Amino acid sequence: MSSSQPMAQALSGRIRDMILKGEFRAGQHLREVQLAEMFGSSRTPVRSALAANEKDGLLDYSPNRGYVVKPFDSKDIGSAYELRALIEGLAARKAAERGLNPEHHRKAATAIAAVDDLLRTSEVLDDDSRESWRRNNADFHHAILDQSDNRFIVPILLNVQQIPAVFPPVLSKYDTEILRIYNTQHKQILDCILNREGVRAEFLMREHILGAGASIRDSIGV
Predict the structure, then answer these.
(1) Does the domain made of 4-69 have the CATH classification 3.40.50.300?
(2) End-to-end CA gap in the chain
(3) In this structure, are residues 121 and 113 in contact, taking their beta carbons and an 8 Å threshold?
(4) Which of 50, 61, 44 is nearest to 4 (CA)?
(5) Per-domain boundaries in the chain
(6) Domain 74-220 in CATH: superfamily?
(7) Could you give the angle at which helices 102-118 and 176-194 cross, rounded to 10 degrees?
(8) Cα gap 111→106, rounded to integer Å
(9) How many angstroms separate the Cα of 104 from the Cα of each of 107, 109, 170?
């Protein structure tokens, strides 16, 4: 790992928080030189941090304009979560009907266990812990998507992911109690899939996604 990667990860979290708190406004240009001066860093980790936030859907990039903060629209986020709930609910049902293979079972179970360990604290999560939660949350969902055996699911979901805050979920407050509820829901969904309870797995996944969407809209105040 290069020495600039931890700095880039930390700056990515700081930029994300500033966007969600409204310190960087929708439509605002974020320039490498100015951010490097603000954070007291070189341009290389700033460049990586901006690219990470673009990947998460918080920034737009074009060669001529550089990075621009995307607007958050409550209606769009709500609509995207409705669609995501349908897509991932279907994936959960298909995974239950097919049966979860050992690799995907291990990936989902490992992600749940890692989040359990991460949340054995009442302290506010730091940047590294937030990134770890986001990574493990994504691993859980991808394990089920990969098992769905429907080649149209992932391409459709990629379009939904272009809406800011949709996937991976982006929060302004990483409340450990809410994250524990999410992880408990993951356990329930995985149990249903392992027990081949397809209809219930679909229902629980839809409820999980819709509930997360509501929490995220509240979290970012849109």
Answers:
(1) no
(2) 37
(3) no
(4) 44
(5) 4-69, 74-220
(6) GntR ligand-binding domain-like (1.20.120.530)
(7) 160
(8) 8
(9) 5, 8, 24
Give, for all 222 residues of the chain, the pLDDT tens digit: 445 678 888 898 889 888 877 788 888 999 999 999 999 999 999 999 999 888 877 898 998 889 999 877 777 778 888 999 999 999 999 999 999 999 999 999 999 999 999 999 878 888 788 889 989 998 999 999 988 878 888 888 877 766 665 555 666 567 888 899 999 999 999 999 999 999 999 999 999 999 988 887 776 665
To the question of pTM greater than 0.85 for the whole model, the response is no
Per-residue pLDDT at 124: 80
Q: What is the pLDDT of residue 161?
A: 67
Question: Residue 14 to residues 24, 56, 104, 146: CA-CA distances in angstroms?
Answer: 11, 14, 33, 31
Taking a C-beta distance cutoff of 8 angstroms, is the pair 174, 98 a contact? no
135, 139, 185, 161: CA torsion to nearest 10: 80
